[in-house]
Design a protein that fits this description.
There is one protein chain. With about 230 residues, the chain is α/β, with parallel strands linked by helices. It has one domain: Alpha/Beta hydrolase fold, catalytic domain (Rossmann fold, 3-Layer(aba) Sandwich). The chain contains eleven helices and six strands.
């Protein structure tokens, strides 16, 4: 049986973020997408672990990458491979801004917050990816977005988690991301000398959405060379 590959989307996204990868990798792994929005990262990680049998590979973008690190910290013996994209291993640097964002989402400004998020996440020239993100955010809804925003306040510092990990790791970063600079990805790569690091020029916060074919190709190579044989 193929090893499960669990994709964890960025907030407030869904499985469409990984559609190309699910289709392009399903012959070598068993892919699935989990949208988690519990009150804390710990609760979401525990939910994933309780509902998943055996070992698995984790892939996460932004919010999903932070959640993947929480799962790794709790069950390092079950994670066979880790694929992180544009995520911050540290605790959230600005809790006040998070509270303001959550309040705006719940107070009728959902569409405006989504538009601002798209502007900061994806370069202006990529109108297709921006439109895809906005549609996902609308479909996911204000409630999930607000709950995921709240949960980022519970994010733990996982620099030490990554530094002590020796599992196969793939790091993919968009260099035009305004939320999590590419220097964060390079810093993680320096901590994990066994990791493969790839950066995409003029790509923003969502590599699998903005550069789907390239992400799938790189992930396929990495999985075959380092994880599934």
């Amino acid at each position: 049986m193929a090893l499960p590959l669990i994709f964890l989307p960025a907030m407030p996204c869904d499985g469409r973020m990984y559609a190309n990868q699910v289709e392009g990798l399903k012959d070598i792994v068993s892919p699935s997408v989990r949208v988690l929005a519990h009150a804390t990262f710990a609760d979401s990680a525990d939910s994933l672990l309780a509902s998943t049998d055996g070992d698995f590979i984790l892939a996460g973008t932004a919010y999903g990458g932070c959640l993947a690190m929480e799962v790794l910290a709790r069950a390092p013996d079950r994670v066979r491979g880790l694929w992180l994209m544009n995520c911050q291993p540290g605790a959230h640097p600005d809790p006040g801004a998070v509270r303001v964002t959550s309040h705006r989402i719940r107070s009728g400004e959902h569409e405006r917050v989504v538009a601002e998020f798209a502007e900061n996440a994806i370069p202006a020239h990529d109108v297709v990816s921006r439109a895809a993100f906005v549609q996902m955010a609308r479909d996911t809804g204000a409630d999930v977005f607000a709950r995921q925003s709240d949960a980022t306040l519970t994010r733990s510092d996982h620099w030490a988690t990554l530094a002590s990990s020796t599992i196969p790791t793939l790091l993919v970063w968009g260099t035009a991301d305004r939320f999590v600079p590419v220097d964060i990805g390079r810093r993680i790569a320096a901590l994990m000398p066994h990791a493969r690091f790839e950066s995409f020029e003029e790509c923003g916060h969502f590599p699998t959405l903005e550069r789907p074919s390239r992400c799938t190709k790189i992930a396929r190579e990495w999985l075959i060379e380092s994880v599934v044989g």
